[in-house]
């Protein structure tokens, strides 16, 4: 059975990230606009510049908040050493963002388990400070292949179809009826473009996930899951 050992540094990491989240909530959502999610820019898919892996868990939220607060246009992040290894330099005076890396490690062998048997697994958390591409000099990001808009929509359509979620078009607005387990959408012709239509549909699909997970966190899930799903499907709901 895994176990977590409390530590003051870890509590400090949680406090910092929690403070950033609360500050972002208190600052307000800004001007509301359709279709209720991030515009699909790379900042919505935060990625480590060295490993090219996407950040997960609370790190996604922390980096979203940092990117929004500083108006970063890139989703590439890295530690000071990672940027330096790539020949880049973090500008003097730049303030980093805290992320957390979790690892599972085996405890040293004890008398209860014998000399050749490790103890129970423990979860180990370590905090890192990362900097956005906009905070460094001397690095040119690799060109990213952009799929044609038609292929992006086909990819998203396949995702929605695989969920077997009942959808009816012709409603006065977009919403999910929990009592009917059904999504209602305006006519396709009422949307600015195909991307706006699909982004809105994905938002409603993710509202189902928020209900299934827990009603007590419905508001938070409705805010976070649509951002994450539309980002992964590369759907943008940009203003015309």
Automatic annotation (TrEMBL):
Polyvalent protein metallopeptidase domain location, by residue? 155-207
> Which Pfam family, an example, fits this chain?
MPTase-PolyVal
List residues of the N-terminal domain: 12-131
List GO molecular-function terms, semicolon-separated: single-stranded DNA binding
Top-rank taxon, per record: Bacteria
Q: Any idea what this protein is called?
A: Antirestriction protein ArdC
Q: What is the lineage of its organism?
A: Bacteria, Pseudomonadati, Pseudomonadota, Alphaproteobacteria, Sphingomonadales
Q: Which gene encodes it?
A: ardC_2
